[in-house]
Specification:
2 copies of one chain form a homodimer. With 348 residues, chain A is mainly β. In chain A, 3% of the residues lie in helices and 51% in strands. In chain A, strand 12 and strand 13 form a beta hairpin.
Amino acid sequence: MTDIAKRFTENPLLRPADLQSRHLGLTIDCLLNPGVFRFQQKVWLVVRVAERPAQQEGVVSFPVLDQAGQIKIIEIEKANPNLILSDSRLLRFENADYLTTLSHFRLLCSDDGVHFYETEGYPPIEGSGAYETYGIEDCRVTQIGKEYYLTYTAVSQNGVGVGLMMTEDWIHFDRKHLIFPPHNKDCALFNEKIGPKYYALHRPGSPVIGGNYIWVAESPDLIHWGNHQCIAMTRHGKWDSVRIGAGGAPIRTKQGWLEIYHGADEQDRYCLGALLLDLENPGIVLGRTDDPIMEPVMQYEQQGFFGNVVFTNGHIVDGDQVTIYYGASDEFVCAARFSIDEILKRLI
Amino acid sequence: MTDIAKRFTENPLLRPADLQSRHLGLTIDCLLNPGVFRFQQKVWLVVRVAERPAQQEGVVSFPVLDQAGQIKIIEIEKANPNLILSDSRLLRFENADYLTTLSHFRLLCSDDGVHFYETEGYPPIEGSGAYETYGIEDCRVTQIGKEYYLTYTAVSQNGVGVGLMMTEDWIHFDRKHLIFPPHNKDCALFNEKIGPKYYALHRPGSPVIGGNYIWVAESPDLIHWGNHQCIAMTRHGKWDSVRIGAGGAPIRTKQGWLEIYHGADEQDRYCLGALLLDLENPGIVLGRTDDPIMEPVMQYEQQGFFGNVVFTNGHIVDGDQVTIYYGASDEFVCAARFSIDEILKRLI
C-alpha cells in the first residue's frame, strides 16, 4: 500500500442527489471530476454532471444534444441485435458509438473547501455546437493573470476532442472551439508562459500503433498548438498499463513542474501517480512515481456508477499542501490532501 | 463504372526494381505515394521508398531506426505465439505494433512528367528523431511563395502523427516537428492564406467514437494549429465507408477548393473521390462525388504489395487538366489525368 493521500473525513463531499437535474425527465447519475479554482475569496468547483432518463426495464435510453442545444432522447430495446453495451459509460448501435449519459458543468462554491453550494447568477455551462452533442466532460481550469481558461473533453459523433473556453467573471464565456482534434482528452494548461510559449499536457489516443500516452504541446496564443512531444507512456505490467492522462494544471515547485496524473490498468482500475517535468523545458521528464500515490480503497471509490476509480483534474495549492478534488467511482466528488514534498520523495 | 481517369499508357512509371536500396541488406519492396512539385522547370516526385530485408522462410524481419538514425533489424519467428501478422503492412508483437517495412523519401525529376530519374546532389530524406523511428510516409508538397512545405506521416512507437519540414532548395530542410499528434495522417496544406490564416486538411483517427474523417484546421504560422472542424465523414455502405483522407494540396477553382481524396471500404479497397470547399471558408463543403472518380481496375492497381489500391497525394495542374501521380497496390508509382471540369460535374 503506497497510498499517501489524506482523504477528507467528510467524503463524499457531493453525491448526485445533492443537485437538481436541470432537464425535465432526466436524473443525475453522476457528479464527478471537478475542475477547481479560486475566485472571490472562495474555492469553486466546475463539476461534471452526467444525466440520463430513469432507465426502464428492457430499454436503454440516453440523451444527446442537437446542434441547436436541444435535448433529444434516444431509446433502444436491449434485445436489439444491433446494440452493444460496451460498459456502463458507452454503447454501440448501428455502426455508431454513443455515451450512456450526457454531461454538462455546474458551478459550486465553498468558504471552507469542504461544503459546496450553488450560487445564483452562475448558470450551468452546457455543450454547444457540432462538437459537443454528446456533452462536455472533465474540465481543467488554469488561471493566467485575470483570465480563467477551461480545457475540457468535447464529445460528439465527430469524435472526442479538447475544447477551450475563457472567462473572467464565470458568467460570460468566450468559446475557442477545438484546440486538439480527436482522439484527445485530459488537457491541462500550464499557468504561465515558459520562455515565449504557452504549454499544455494532452492525451491523444490511437486505434493502432502508439497508445494512450501523455504529450506536451506549445502555443503562441493558447489557441493554436504545435511541436507535440510524448513525455510519458503506459507501463506494461504496472498500475498504469493501459492509459494515462494529466490531472489538473501542473504545480510549480523548486524541483520542477509536478503533475499528478491518472493511470488505468486492464481491469479499468484508476489510480493516481505523479510526474516531474523540467522547469525550463517541460518536454523533459525528471521523475515519475513507480507506485500509485493514491488507489481506490474506500467504499465510495470502489462502488458506484463505474467502480474502482479515483480521478482528479483539479486542485488547490497552499505551500507544501495540495488539496485534490476528485471523482470517485465516476459518481461522487471527494477531496484529499497530499504533502508536495512527500510526493516528490516518491519520484524515481 | 464511374472512373473518369485517363491513365498514362506508360504505367507503372516506377517499380521497386528501378531504384537501388540505400541500405545494405535491405531490398525495396514498394515505391509509392509520391508528393509532387515543380522546381527548376522540371516535375519532381518525393517518392516513398519502403524497404525491408529479403524475407526468409519461417521468419518475419523488418527494419526500424534508432533515435540516432541507425537501422536496426528485428527478426521474429513466425511460429512465435506473441506475433500477430495483421496484414502485409502491419504486425503486432509483445504488446507493441510495428510496420513490416521502413520508408524514406527519394527525389526524382522529369522533363516530360513521364520518365523520372535521380539527380546527383539531392540526397534522400530519412526519418529523424524519436517520432520517425518507424519511418516517414506519404509526403504532400505545398509551395507557398519560394518555400516548399512537406507534410508527411511520421511513425514511431509513440504513434502515427504529422510532421512538417520546409525547404527552398531541396537540399537543406528545416524540420518543424509534429504539427498534429497521433493518430493523424493525410495532411495537405492549402497553398495560400485565406484571410489571415493558413489552412490544412488532416485525418485524425479514433479508437472509439468518431472515425477516420477529414478535418480542416487553421494556423497563423503553419506550425501551430487550432479550430479543428470535421468536414467529411465516411459513408456507410459506399466505397468510402471505413476511412477517407485528403490527397494533395487543394486546387483553387472558380467554384471552390477542389480536393481529390481517397476512400477505403471494409475490404480495404482504395478509390478516389472529390470534395469541393468554399473559397472563403474551407470548413464549408459545397459538394462531394457520390461515386468514385477512379477505382483500382488495372492489373498493377489490383495486384501488388497491398492490392486493390489507388492512392494519390500529389498532382500538377495545367488549366483544366490535373495530372495525379499515385501509388498503385502500394507498390508502383503511376500517373493519370483528369479534367477538372469533369470532376466538378460529378459533385452532388
